[in-house]
Amino acid sequence: xxxxxxxxVLVITVVVTLFAGxxxxxxxxxxxxxxxxxxxxxxSIPLMEVTPPVKQPSVEEVSNxxxxxxxxxxxxxxxxxxxxxxxxxxxxxxxxxxxxxxxxQVEPLLASSLSPTLEAALAAGTEAAETRLAAMLDKRLTExxxxxxxxxxxxxxxxxxxxxxxxxxxxxEVEAYVPQVVDALLPALTExxxxxxxxxKDAYVAYxxxxxxxxxxxxxxxELYTA
Length: 227
Prior knowledge:
The protein is mainly α. The protein has a domain at 3-94. The chain has helices spanning 3-26, 31-43, 59-94, 96-199, 201-211, 218-226. It starts with a helix and ends with a helix.
């Protein structure tokens, strides 16, 4: 605990004690003391000169006095508190040994009284901080998950579009190469076909003789071939 805090606590304690003592002094029972003083005075004078007893304060008057004091005490406290506080503070600050000794006496009491409150406040603050941290982490995790999902969907769509474009381009290129491949392979295929027909001419003629109708002319054979 800082020295200034301890001094402020000591000043407040002393001021409250002074006002409590002043209140008790104002509210002290004074009627019996007045009666005793008057009795002593009567004993010191001759009996014939004794005057009738003075009317004593009634219970109602004493109650009124106490009520008046209770009404004036807050006003006095309000007016005198700043002056007394500053005076006591200056006195304590001037005497470091006294301030240190009072601090030793008051600090254990303050520690014992404030310790449960501080522990409860610390526990509540820790729990609230953990709750806020967990909520913040959940929120951040949800935001990052949603962002990753959106980015993944965008990336998948982009990859799909690129693949579709590449496939379409490949088809176009393949279709463009087909005529060239056919033109390149056609002479070799023609020669291979003619060679195969020449090599198996007798078998083909026999098969065609069996399949085709008899009596067909050359023109009819050409029409049948082109049909």
